[in-house]
Amino acid sequence: MEPMFVNSASSFVADAIRGLVASTPDINWHPDPGYLTRREPLQDGRVALLSGGGSGHEPMHAGMIGTGMLAAVCPGLVFTSPNALQVHEASKAVDAGGGVLHIVKNYTGDVMNFGIARDLLREDDIESDVVLVDDDVATERADGPGRRGTGATVVVEKICGAAAERGDSLQSVVALGRRVAANARSMAVALRPCVLPGSDAPSFDLPVGEIELGIGIHSERGTRRVPTMSAQEIVAALTQPVVDSLGLERGERVIAFVNGLGATHPMELQLLYGELAEFLSDKGIDIARPLVGSFVTALNMAGASITLVRVDDEMLTLWDAPTSAPGWPNNAPRAAGDLGERGGFGPTYEASETSSEASAFVSEWVASWAQRVLDEEPALTELDRRAGDGDFGTNMVAALSQLDLTAVRETYSAPTVFEAVSEAYLGHAGGTSGALFGIWFRQFYRTVQSVDLASITAAARSGLDSITEIGGARVGDKTMVDAISPAVDALESATELTEGLRAAAEAAAQGAESTEEITASRGRASYVGDAARGVVDPGALVIAWFFEAASAAQ
């Protein structure tokens, strides 16, 4: 069985609802036949919004109960429609005389059970109607049940909920909801399928190195399986069909919604939104409002969906209206911000007016080293995954990708090369590695004014002293110091530059290799103890490459 917080698969939904009600003062649970309502009844004459569907999509729908949104929710079992009796009883419970609006995702079971409930409501002389949400372009074809209802559901709930809160009639709210739904489209991707409570296997097989485009929120298989792509490519693959289906043109306004499917980190969602904003900007489509977060999930699926909704002024006014729903981000009304520059935003460096043979040596040395580190990022990440927390390669790339390596090779003076690398680490890498490598290169910037053995040796010694003072590591602690210290000793024993750099490269390589059998007492590997034995410290390895590049450039 896959790891999951669960008492038993059969009680999973009921246990979760118990926690929701205990943590949310404004929600009541009615166990027979099973529905949730606001604790306080609606004002007389107001339209009551009711939605629901299979559990596993939280915070949709239960998290959307509150003033300005839903009056009641009918949860089914995981990915299973609620039954008609649940919907009927919940509708009767929240009817305040203004009628009941069902917001229903276009899945066969949901459509059928909500439809039967409305038939029963007619027998009770309770007016009701439906807005069907059908936004998923992955199932947009002539045959079959049509587009599934996915991410746009919460957009319909928010806008219709605000209209009901201001006192609009049932007919007006229905017309508005159908207008929103007609102007909404979505598409989703899975990086990893979900695993249902009690299951021993994922809902579908997805090999490593592949992603599934066009998946559904019940963890249905997608319409196309492709090799893993960059975030930029994924956003284009999801968004272009949405734009095409809506027929969006330059100058039109949209709500742009990037949604996580349950196991996707907020940083990943923000990254996707940045790519979406740029994609739409290139097409001249204006983002009137952004929404980024996990609101319509597929239990614990790793993936995301993109929803675009063409909007008008009335929709935006209602979108900005307040709500007490616990699952809604109660932020101030806002339009999308400026996209800004792709990549980094750090210091720029003036080109050197003079180019000497010495500066050319340093430029080639550092540029070739930086390129190697960038190229070897997967290997460095794997080493750090085995010996620490797995972020070393990412931090290296975060820093060194800021460098203009062409400018480093062709126009920078020696001090400027080292200054640029130091600033890149201190400003972009973060963590311990960012600080220590930033300080290391800072000493080279401060010390290497003339490129000779004495200056480089002094810089390396100063860098080693600064690192040991700040980090406390010594030789034998399985850190970058294990490579730096013998390299400094070799430089201090040399009589000329070429000899010194060659000896330093050999000593640093041997020092890095020695870390393989060390049990760390400092640095990232110290947290995993003997588990890091047999792994070369990646920081020491990068330092060895640094001196190897110096020897090769000389």
Can you walk through the features of this model?
The protein is elongated and about 100 Å long. With 554 residues, it is α/β, with parallel strands linked by helices. A six-stranded mixed sheet has the order 1-2-4-3-5-6, sandwiched between helices. Strands 9-8-7-12-10-11 form a six-stranded mixed sheet. α9 packs across α11, α14 (431-447) packs antiparallel against α15 and α15 (453-471) packs antiparallel against α16. Helix content is 45%, strand content 14%. The chain starts with 11 loop residues before the first helix and ends with a helix. The longest helix has 19 residues, at 357-375.
Outline the secondary-structure elements.
Elements: H1 12-23, E1 27-30, E2 35-38, E3 48-55, E4 72-78, H2 84-94, E5 100-105, H3 108-123, E6 128-133, H4 152-165, H5 170-182, E7 184-192, E8 210-213, E9 224-227, H6 231-246, E10 253-260, H7 266-282, E11 286-293, E12 302-310, H8 313-319, H9 357-375, H10 377-387, H11 392-400, H12 405-410, H13 414-429, H14 431-447, H15 453-471, H16 481-493, H17 497-514, H18 538-553
Parallel strand pairs: 3-4, 3-5, 5-6, 10-11
Antiparallel strand pairs: 1-2, 2-4, 7-8, 7-12, 8-9, 10-12
Helix pairs in contact: 2-3, 4-5, 4-8, 6-7, 9-11, 9-13, 9-18, 10-11, 11-13, 13-14, 14-15, 15-16, 16-17, 16-18, 17-18
